[in-house]
Design a protein that fits this description.
- The complex is a heterotrimer.
- By secondary structure, chain A is an alpha+beta fold.
- Helices cover 28% and strands 17% of the residues of chain A.
- Chain A contains seven helices and eleven strands.
- In chain A, the strands form three sheets. Chain A has a five-stranded mixed sheet with strand order 2-1-5-3-4, sandwiched between helices.
- Chain A is globular, with a radius of gyration of 25 Å.
- The two termini of chain A are 32 Å apart.
- Chain B has eight helices and four strands.
- Classes of the chains: A alpha+beta, B alpha+beta, C alpha/beta.
- Chains in contact: A-B, A-C, B-C.
């Protein structure tokens, strides 16, 4: 993330004529959001670094000292700075936004998200040639970025230019995938799908066994691979994934019950050294 | 590449991959250099080799695959012994590159980006090889052929079909012989 | 000569002594047979010519060889590629073109040993019809001012001493002998050197902001990715004067106080890589690169990164990702590379031609350099002059030279006579540039004038087009190029350029409407301001410039369903003019779709079956009598 060192003191900027407070190091988009000014985005997500690929959050930026020069910048990547004057609804901004949504509608005509955003900008149907055999992928790249930062980089962008797509190595089941579903959860259009039946989960052409509760045997919402990934890479304790939620709750309740009994007896330490419950 | 013309993948000797990896420090930044050396050696990037490279340099396989499909220098299917790169740069375009390309496509019976089933030729349409003064240009592996005409292109195919020794006997089928040949020869001089 | 076996120069003085000694050595006074082995001449068979010359010269009796005081040099590109293979005798500067191996015995016996001039191998001036003997008297060269290309063609790029004989590394020695880094920075700033890669950004300012950015180490990158189709000056410089690139980078590194440099070379330029690798190794061996250069405290080394074949990597932030081993995707430039570039460290990136100018500026002074060119564009610019012009090749002229002077002076005018061959447009700046019409021929060429005219300098491609070039087809060509070369990261570039391509294809196929023109103009504006990097931002330029100057051609395609240049397949038909056809049968053999009928025989004529004809144009290309008509 790009940082601009301006000291630590908050400062003010103007967005759509409103004085807005911003903090050093943050981007225009974050400051606008906090001030309740809506700027549409598709490729931005709090869990990953900004990318600037959808171009929907473009705003017009200027300063009094810039002698009338205004630039179109992506709010998600443009660092907030004192005395910026920002317009989020100027004709130039809306022109780009309309075109971007029109183009995305030609790419993904069946996406309800794109349909809605486009309609909000006055685009009822695309004015361009619709892609043959369209799917719901707008290539925002959120799935690839979340997989890289939170999981195993099992998927990537493949090819380039107009042929770019999101894919797995050789189009097959991705060997590094842990079935965590992060990609499916961040996908704004529902392009990435998965299925869960009983204790199995299927995504990207792979099938995963879900971790089972050590006590009742019920499937946990986490795959075996994901559990061992978290244990290995994020240094979490394996016991964290050993029980289902209800068994976990029961165990916790038992622990609290025991604690209450000791307190009644005036004990400060557990009579038997064995640890109970999770290590939360 | 169409499914029918998909050539057989030769067995992969990973010793060469190891030798190439040994030239570089085991750092992600050397990925592209390693892939270039692999491409040169195998004439494509075999999956087994890429799996090994990813593990050795610490780059996730999906990233390796992303890089391998992003850059034009790399191919995931075996390329031919002779790679004919038709320059489609601007200077070549206005001096007849589209005709040169269509001629090669019809002679070799493959589309740009494909390889003949016998793995002799690969045909590529590339963006400017930087020999614009000689437009139109075709690169035959690392050798440039300039100021090409339809007839010169045919000769190039014939010389290639004769194997790496150069011009020679094995000719591709052609529609007619005597007068056409005369016409070709008159242009050769 | 075994220059690599020679020792490192222990000090600046030792280097200067050696360089001075070299100038008085027999080597310096030898007569030279310069054979061009640039990519262009090699394509015309220069390798065989060089081998034949080597053999013929070696076969001369020993005493004769000594008496002649001869040496043969395989040089880089002379720039006049179209006339290759080229052989130049030096110092008499006799220029032979189109030399074939079979010409070599005569060349050696009469030309070199006998001292005669072989008229049939001389260049013939198309204007006077007379042969021209001397290198410098040929219009193509006489009208050039060579600063960046001062060495290429005149020395062996693989020979460091050859470079030293041409005052190589003198500028680096001068700097190391007592300049401060600040002094170098000032000199470059005062010379007003602007980057030759495309944008024309002030090089001194770039170096200064990198130097004042926080963070170390700083990195230096030479962009040798020259992706613009139609430009090859950087290839010629890397192939023909690799030490010039290295010296320029070393001086820049001294100013920036950095130790690490990278040259990023296109994958398509294997010879450039070979020559640069050799030159780097030689410079290292002699103490001109590496630890403690010329015995001083300054250390600097260069590594080569080979590109993977991606036009977008000419964009600096994409290039840096590629050097890092990643996919070449650009980043937003709200934070400059001079602050956070390669590995997020302050980085200076300039292209090959920019660096090659640096030693000359140091040698002759900023004032000298700033006296050349126009008010805001100093020095010279190398152009790759190609297309439908008589003399194609590399032309380096002073900034401010008119398009007319370049095309009709050095370029010798249009290639084809007649109305079809008349000048229509010149394309500058590659896929980011535009097409300029005849009315702008007197435009003085510099960074700003080209931008104002709706095109741009780019890296210096200059493609001349005549009336057989269709401007709709040219615009469509560039869009097809860009949709393939876009990295695909941002929506306007990936989807927008593709939709523009679709619209232009419709127009080229005669399916266009007037609403399409409005649509493409509207979309162009959005793509130009909405795209993430320069590739997308400048992508609409070829469309906008052709619409601006050649709108009537678009309208002919739309309203009259006619392609005036006879290029767009859907709008033309081929037929055979029976009065001109002599029945040779060349067209019959050329046709790949069996659309031509007739018997090859004198007196017979042929017909084209228009239903079967796929309009490839092969018949027209082979017909010697111009009997294939396009309408």
């Amino acid at each position: 993330m790009s940082e601009v060192n301006l000291g630590d003191a908050p400062f003010t900027m103007t967005i759509d004529g409103k004085r807005v407070e911003a903090r050093p190091g943050e981007m225009v988009l974050a400051a606008a959001k906090r001030a309740g000014i809506a700027i549409p985005t598709l490729c931005e997500h709090k869990a990953v670094e900004s990318f600037g690929s959808c171009r929907l959050c473009m705003v017009e930026v200027t300063k009094a000292a810039w002698k009338g020069w205004k630039g179109l910048m992506t709010a998600c990547l443009y660092p907030a700075a004192p005395d910026l004057i920002i317009e989020t609804q100027s004709e130039r901004v809306l022109h780009v936004r309309r075109n971007v949504l029109d183009l995305l509608l030609a790419r993904c005509p069946d996406s309800t998200l794109i349909q809605r955003l486009a309609a909000e900008h006055g685009v009822q149907q695309t004015s361009f040639s619709v892609r043959e055999q369209p799917d719901l992928c707008i290539l925002c790249g959120l799935c690839v970025r979340i997989c890289e930062s939170a999981a195993t980089s099992a998927i990537s962008t493949v090819k380039r230019g107009h042929h770019r797509e999101i894919g797995t190595p050789w189009g097959g089941p991705p060997p590094a995938c842990i079935g965590c579903l992060a990609c499916a959860h961040v996908c704004p259009t529902g392009h990435i799908t998965f299925e869960e039946h009983g204790a199995t989960r299927a995504i990207w052409g792979r099938s995963f066994e879900l971790q089972r509760c050590a006590e009742c045997g019920a499937p946990l919402p986490i795959t075996v691979e994901q559990a061992s990934f978290l244990v290995e890479r994020q240094a979490l304790d394996a016991s964290y994934f050993s029980r289902c939620e209800s068994c976990q709750r029961r165990a916790t309740a038992q622990t609290f019950g025991r604690l209450a009994r000791w307190q009644k007896l005036g004990l400060t330490q557990e009579p038997d050294a064995r640890q109970e419950g999770g290590k939360r | 590449m169409s499914a029918q013309s998909q050539p057989q993948f030769p067995p992969v000797d990973l010793a060469a991959t190891e030798a190439i990896l040994a030239r570089y420090a085991a750092e992600p930044k050397h990925l592209i250099s390693v892939l270039q050396d692999l491409q040169l050696h195998y004439r494509y990037l075999p999956r087994e080799a890429l799996e090994r490279v990813g593990a050795a340099l610490g780059v996730p396989l999906a990233k390796v695959y992303g890089v391998a499909t992003f850059y034009k220098a790399f191919s995931l299917t075996p390329r031919g012994e002779k790679i004919l790169r038709v320059c489609t740069g601007t200077a070549c375009h206005i001096r007849g590159a589209p005709l040169i390309l269509s001629e090669l496509q019809s002679r070799l019976k493959i589309a740009a980006g494909e390889t003949t089933p016998d793995l002799r030729f690969s045909l590529e349409a590339v963006n400017c090889v930087g020999a614009c003064a000689l437009a139109p240009v075709v690169m035959e592996n690392d050798t440039a052929h300039g100021n090409l005409s339809v007839t010169k292109v045919r000769r190039l195919v014939r010389s290639g079909a004769a194997g790496s020794r150069g011009r020679g006997s094995a000719e591709l089928p052609r529609p007619d012989d005597s007068p056409a040949k005369k016409a070709e020869e008159s242009e050769e001089s | 000569m075994a220059e690599t076996a020679q020792a490192r120069f222990a000090s600046v003085e030792a280097f200067l002594r050696h360089a001075a000694l070299l100038k008085t050595s027999p080597e310096a006074t030898q007569r030279r047979v310069l054979v061009c082995l640039g990519t262009g001449c090699m394509a015309s068979g220069a390798r065989e010519v060089a081998a034949a010359l080597e053999r013929a010269l070696a076969a001369l009796p020993a005493e004769r060889r000594v008496a002649l005081n001869l040496c043969m040099k395989k040089t880089g590109c002379h720039g006049f590629c179209e006339k290759g293979p080229l052989v130049v005798l030096w110092p008499e500067a006799t220029f032979y073109k189109g030399v074939k191996p079979k010409d070599v015995p005569e060349l050696v016996e009469r030309g070199i040993v006998g001292g005669e001039v072989i008229e049939r191998l001389l260049y013939v001036d198309p204007k006077t019809g007379k042969p021209v003997e001397k290198y410098g008297a040929i219009d193509f060269y006489a009208r050039q001012t060579r600063i960046a290309m001062r060495n290429i063609g005149l020395m062996d790029p693989a020979n460091l001493d050859d470079y030293l004989l041409r005052d190589g590394y003198q500028a680096l020695a001068k700097v190391l002998a007592g300049w401060s880094p600040e002094q170098v920075l000032k000199e470059i700033e005062q010379a007003k050197l602007r980057g030759r890669g495309g944008g024309g950004f002030d090089a001194g300012r770039k170096w200064r902001s990198c130097k004042s950015a926080k963070g170390t180490p700083r990195y230096l990158i030479c962009n040798g990715d020259e992706g613009d189709p139609g430009a090859f000056m950087d290839r010629s410089l890397m192939e023909g004067d690799p030490h010039g690139v290295i010296e320029g980078m070393a001086i820049a590194a001294f100013a920036l106080e950095t130790r690490e440099g990278t040259i990023y070379v296109r994958q398509e330029y294997p010879l450039a890589v070979e020559h640069l690798e050799r030159a780097i190794a030689d410079a290292r061996a002699r103490g001109l690169l590496g630890e403690r250069i010329l015995g001083t405290d300054f250390s600097f080394d260069i590594q080569i990164a080979r590109g993977g074949g991606a036009f977008v990597c000419g964009e600096s932030s994409a290039l840096m990702r590629s050097v890092e081993g990643k996919v070449g995707e650009p980043r937003a430039k709200y934070v400059h590379a001079t602050d956070k570039g390669l590995w997020d460290k302050p980085t200076v990136l300039n292209n090959v031609e920019t660096f090659v100018n640096v030693p000359r500026i140091v040698e002759k002074g900023a004032a000298w350099y700033a006296s050349i060119g126009t008010a805001r564009s100093k020095g010279t610019k190398a152009f790759a002059l190609t297309g439908k012009v008589k003399n194609t090749g590399l032309v380096e002229v002073e900034m401010g030279t008119s398009l007319r002077e370049i095309i009709f002076g050095a370029g010798g005018g249009m290639l084809v006579d007649g109305p079809k061959g008349a000048f229509k447009a010149v394309q500058t700046g590659g896929p980011s540039g535009g097409c300029l019409p005849e009315s702008l021929l007197d435009l003085p060429v510099d960074f700003d004038s080209l931008t104002d005219a709706g095109s741009m300098m780019g890296s210096g491609g200059m493609i001349v087009m005549d009336h057989s070039t269709c401007m709709v087809d040219v615009a469509r060509y560039f869009l097809s190029f860009l949709t393939d070369e876009s990295c695909g990261k941002c929506v306007p570039c990936r989807e927008g350029l593709y939709q523009m391509y679709r619209i232009l294809s419709r127009i080229a196929e005669g399916q266009g409407t007037e609403a399409d023109l409005a649509k493409i103009e509207d979309l162009s504006q959005a793509v130009a301001v909405g795209s993430l990097c320069a590739l997308g931002k400048s992508g609409p330029t070829p469309v906008l410039s052709t619409l601006r100057y050649f709108r009537h051609e678009y309208e002919a395609h739309i309203k009259e369903k006619r392609c005036p240049a006879g290029v767009c397949k859907a709008l033309i038909t081929y037929s055979i003019d029976t009065s001109a056809c002599d029945g040779c049968g060349a067209c019959l053999a050329a046709c790949a779709s069996d659309a031509i009928t007739g018997t090859p025989k004198k007196g017979e004529t042929f017909q084209i079956n228009t239903l079967q004809c796929d309009k490839c144009g092969a018949c027209a290309a082979v017909c010697k009598r111009g009997a294939v008509a396009i309408s």
